[in-house]
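This follows on from our talk about sequence and fold. Please put the record directly below this note.
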Amino acid sequence: MQSPCVARCGLNDEDYCMGCLRHIDEIVGWSQASDERKLEILASLPARKKALEGENSQPLSRAKWLESEARLGLD
């Protein structure tokens, strides 16, 4: 299943990407997620879009990525 990434990565203060609207843990764990989990994530994106409209973002850093890998046990 294809990732919803739109190559406009930038995290808000709660670590949601303002490009694809996924949480950093969902982004980092995407390749290991089951198809069922991926469908759940995709289904949540329209509601997140409404909830996150107008928020600012910061570039997705390597440090944030590594923190998420460690949290998910992928390091």
Observations:
- The mean pLDDT is 93.
- DSSP finds three helices and no strands in the chain.
